[in-house]
Known about the structure:
59% helix; DNA-binding; mainly alpha
Amino acid sequence: MSTDSRPPGYELPLLLLLGFRSLIDDLHAELARQGHPDVRPMHGFVFQAIGTQGTTAAELGRRLAISKQAAGKTIAALEALGYVARGTDARDARRKVVHLTGRGIDCLQRSARIFDELRRAWAAEIGEQRLNELEADLRRVAPSDASRLLEAPGWFGSATGPPRD
Amino acid sequence: MSTDSRPPGYELPLLLLLGFRSLIDDLHAELARQGHPDVRPMHGFVFQAIGTQGTTAAELGRRLAISKQAAGKTIAALEALGYVARGTDARDARRKVVHLTGRGIDCLQRSARIFDELRRAWAAEIGEQRLNELEADLRRVAPSDASRLLEAPGWFGSATGPPRD
DNA sequence: TAAGATAGACAACATGGTTGGCTATAATGT
DNA sequence: ACATTATAGCCAACCATGTTGTCTATCTTA
């Protein structure tokens, strides 16, 4: 046996990133075809974080581990695109409840369907069982706290770290 | 059999991203401990693209699929941190050859070693064979063009797309 | 030698992040 | 009941990373 027949470790993150990018790129190419050309990869996470219940800027910031100001800016951008709308809260005059519009819900539902199709395509390529194993393995090694995923934009390049407020 | 026992498709990209983030976060935590606290996730890709041979801003931009201006800015930032240095090319007065400094090479070598250790940690968790399979599967489904990976920063959030020049 | 292509730099702008400061409203303690 | 504290949302300023457009200097080529 050779003393080191293992692949170099740097390949693993590359493969994970390429796989992620591949899925996200395919998703958004298909979303664009289905009438959502201006939605960005980040927006999907935001839609998910808003959910069907609606939320507020401060709460969104906490869920995404970004500052409430950043959350507010994102909400404003999404509002301008017609994906979310803001209402008021009768019980708390400070809060402005953000909820998905019909267009936002349509985008969210189409995303779910497209992701299912993409997963089926992967399963067709490597086999359902291997794909199940791949997911199971990743669940074991990846931290399960699915929040703080939206640090992704910024996290990659900037040095500031998570917000203080 | 149930009509749909498969996991929802949206989980796959999440797992890939979490896995990637986990590796990169661990890498940079360890790099910080080993004397490189100010290097960013993106920089590793840049170091890799510069290589031991050195390169130029325009060529770096092509390798990373970013504009030469963006490449120039990144080089300037890395130069300020002491990781790269710029020299001239005797054969072509236009070109300014960028090469890694001793510190840059040190960082690159430590990164490689840390990635190997992280891979061993994953192998200890899920088994060497499963990890090999995971990598093999990802190689099949992920596009192999390892360039255009540095679109990552920006790609996630912005809408501009790849550069024209 | 003139025309075109390339390298690098500067300015201006967009996006998405952060911090700091501000006002309005709610919650809490004395 | 009232004063304090905490929270929600917003505005301005800044940083980091991208883009485009424009400019000059230098090869390369017809």
